[in-house]
Amino acid sequence: MSTHITDPRAELKRKAAIEAADMVKEGMVVGLGSGSTSAFMIEELGRRWAEGLRFCAIPTSERSAEQARSHGIRLVTFATHPQIDIDIDGADEVERGTLNLIKGLGGALFREKIVAAASRRFVVVVDDSKLVDRLGVAVPVPVEVANFGWNSTARQLEALGAKVTQRLDRSGNVFVTDGGNMILDCHFGEIADSDTLQNQLDRVVGVIETGLFIGRTSEVIVATADGLQRLHAA
Ligand SMILES: O=C(CO)[C@H](O)[C@H](O)COP(=O)(O)O
C-alpha cells in the first residue's frame, strides 16, 4: 500500500527519500533510518524489494524494523554484518556549511548514531525547511540519558547552558526510547561550536548519547519546491 500525500512538506520528504532509495543496489547492507522521511524511503525500498531487488538491512528503530518486515525486507544484525554500505536517514536540522546535524526529535538518536557510525556512506534526506546556518536555531538537542539519577544529569546539562525539558509522549507519560531510556531535550539556542558542545555533553555522567551528529554526513539530499539538491561533505 502506498501513502497518499496531501501535505506539500511530506511530498518533498517523499521525493528526497525516493532519490536516496535509488542509491541502494543489489547485495548492499543498508541502514534504515527513522522518522517520516525515512518511512517514505523504506516504503520505496519495499516497492523495489517486491520488484526483485535484494539487499539486507539494519533498522534504527523498532518502528522502522516493523515497517521493513511488513514489506518482507531481510533484516540482519551487526553480529553478521558489522559494516554497513549505506545508511539513509532523516534529520531535524542540517547545518549548511558543515552538514552537521541535529537528530532525535523522533527519539531514535542512539541507534541512529550507532548505525551511522558503522556505515561507509551516511546519506541524509530532508526537505529544505531543515537547512539552517547554525544548529540549534529551531530545535533542541535531544540527549538520551540513563533513567537512574536523571535529575542530577539534567542539572549537569543545565550547567552547560541548556534549558532542559524531559521528553513526554503523546499521552503525557515519560517518553521511553527503544533502549528503555529517557530523553532530555536541551535547548541551547544557536550553537556556535557544535564539536565542543558534543565533547562537553559526552563528558556528562548519565548521558548515553546525543542527537548532535558531527562530521558523519557523506551527503544530504534536499528536496525543495524547485527540485532536488545534493550537498556533499567537504
Ligand atoms: O532523528 C530522527 C528520529 O530520531 C528523524 O530522522 C528526524 O526526527 C527527522 O524526522 P522526520 O523525517 O519525520 O522529519
Automatic annotation (TrEMBL):
Record keywords: Isomerase
E.C. code: 5.3.1.6
Record Pfam families: Rib_5-P_isom_A
Binding residues for substrate: 34-37, 89-92, 103-106, 130
GO molecular function: ribose-5-phosphate isomerase activity
Domain of life: Bacteria
EC class of the enzyme, as a word: isomerase
Catalytic activity from the UniProt record: aldehydo-D-ribose 5-phosphate = D-ribulose 5-phosphate
Record keyword Lyase present: no
InterPro entries xrefs: NagB/RpiA_transferase-like (IPR037171), Ribose-5P_isomerase (IPR050262), Ribose5P_isomerase_typA_subgr (IPR020672), Ribose5P_isomerase_type_A (IPR004788)
Protein's pathway: Carbohydrate degradation; pentose phosphate pathway; D-ribose 5-phosphate from D-ribulose 5-phosphate (non-oxidative stage): step 1/1
Active site: 112
UniProt entry tagged with the keyword Isomerase: yes
Record function comment: Catalyzes the reversible conversion of ribose-5-phosphate to ribulose 5-phosphate.
PANTHER family associated with the record: RIBOSE-5-PHOSPHATE ISOMERASE 3, CHLOROPLASTIC-RELATED
Family affiliation: Belongs to the ribose 5-phosphate isomerase family.
Subunit and interaction comment: Homodimer.
Identification of the protein by name: Ribose-5-phosphate isomerase A
Species in which this protein is naturally found: Komagataeibacter medellinensis
